[in-house]
Amino acid sequence: MAPSRRCIGRVLEGLEVETTEAYLDRKHEELRLLNGCLRSPLSLVCPRSIAEVIERKFQLTALIRAEHELQDWTATETAWAPGCGAAGPFEFEYDYQRADLKVQGPSFYEFGGEFTFDTAYTGSGMAAISALLLASARVLGPANVLVLPGTYSETLELIEGYARHLRKVTLKNELVDKTAEAEERRILLLDFCAPAGAFEATLRNTGRALDLLVFDTTCFAGGSGRIRRVLRWARQWHIPVVMVRSHNKLDSLGAEYGRLGSASFVHPAKGALPADRSKINDLLSETRNAIRLFGGAAMPAHFPPYIGAHSYRSLTNRRVAAMLRNGRHATRYFRSTLKDLIREFHFAHGLYVTLSSTQPFDEAAARWTATKMSEDLGRTGFPIRHAGSFGFDFAAAEWFRDISTDGYSVRIAVPDLPTAKWDDLTKAVAHWWVANRPTSVAA
Question: Which helix (H) or strand (E) holds 56?
Fold first, then answer.
């Protein structure tokens, strides 16, 4: 049975304070899982430091990828040899350049028999949502796409710059069904970057006016109860749902195994109307065609082979619980020490916070600040890097743009670290921020 958000909550409560010893034991389990994917496993001992955890995990994933290439050397772009290989529990079938890639294997989502999924895999999360939104023109035609404040900036760039059949409508306090006065079709984009309050408010509204729900699940664990709630809400209002996801975040045990994205077309086991199924099937067909034409198919080597392992779900659940716990600690501390320097800390996912300055950042200042803070704190021994992603075993700092306000800030992605170490790093970030925050590169 897949871990639910309630299950994650129970784990989180049990991890309110995790000692370094308990953390290293847990990380040893993760390393053993990765090591077990090798045809010739290494001799592992329990790691003695956070630095050793990080280094060893990236080494093991590199070895897994190397073994895959050596084992499946016949699986070339031309598919000249019979059979296209496998990666752990995943089996692949395709012709030239994977334009017709078929994947058999476990789902990254786990909801028992309540929902089923037809999944199209791509080379990244942005490739998945790009193909989906552009394919929607042939199925839905011109439409209003309803977005919440704080929606992922690159998704909004895509809509405004390339999806010309879509008109962006930013929701504020109005109910979703108030858009029913318009004649256009309506697509709700429910994004992981939305503030928690806006996310929750959406699920308290009716959805009868919606023609499609596009749900970006990247920041939620694959078995999250939050995902289940959204799917049940959509089923209640007979809204067709497509879930898009970047898998090199929470699905890779913190090691960014490879660039992989997906668009999963949801079918409720019960309660789906024939019209709903017809629309979602048409959209699936057009999305697969768009992936083929854009050359965005997934690479078989980027499917993590440990997904189907018995311990994978439990370990991922415990990682996410630790990050959520650390996020709560950071929020409380930043709220009391940085006050108005916090740009946003109530994201729906709870995995990062954004910090600002007394004067607005421009892009150059935000980039410089993220780099400088990471370098300064890293030199003192803290596990923090300047990195444009999240879900690691180290903290990641990066510049952040809110396209709805055209403002810039610095994003601190919460890592999976033992409680005391993260609390020390949180204090160091706050101290550095007060002492060094610039308003321009020249500051």
Answer: helix 50-71
Predicted confidence band of residue 4 (pLDDT cuts 50, 70, 90): very low
- Give backbone dihedrals phi and psi of 147, rounded to 5 degrees, phi first: -125, 150
What domains, with CATH codes, occur in the chain?
Answer: 5-72+307-313 (no CATH), 86-302 (3.40.640.10), 318-436 (3.90.1150)
Joined tokens for residue 300: 């078989």
Q: Which tops the pLDDT comparison, 54 or 365?
A: 54
Higher pLDDT, 173 or 47: 47
pLDDT digit string, tens, across residues 316-336: 999 999 999 999 999 999 989
Q: Which residue, 150, 191, 149, 184, is CA-closest to 170? A: 149
Helices marked H in 217-309 — which ranges?
A: 225-236, 274-294
User: In Å, how far are 15, 111, 218, 327 from 8, measured between CA atoms?
Assistant: 10, 15, 16, 14
Q: What is the CA radius of gyration of the chain?
A: 22
- CA dist., res. 201 & res. 240, Å (int): 20
Predicted TM-score of the model (pTM):
0.90
Rounded to whole angstroms, the Cα distance separating 225 from 114 reads 13
Residue 200 backbone dihedrals phi, psi, to 5 degrees: -65, -40
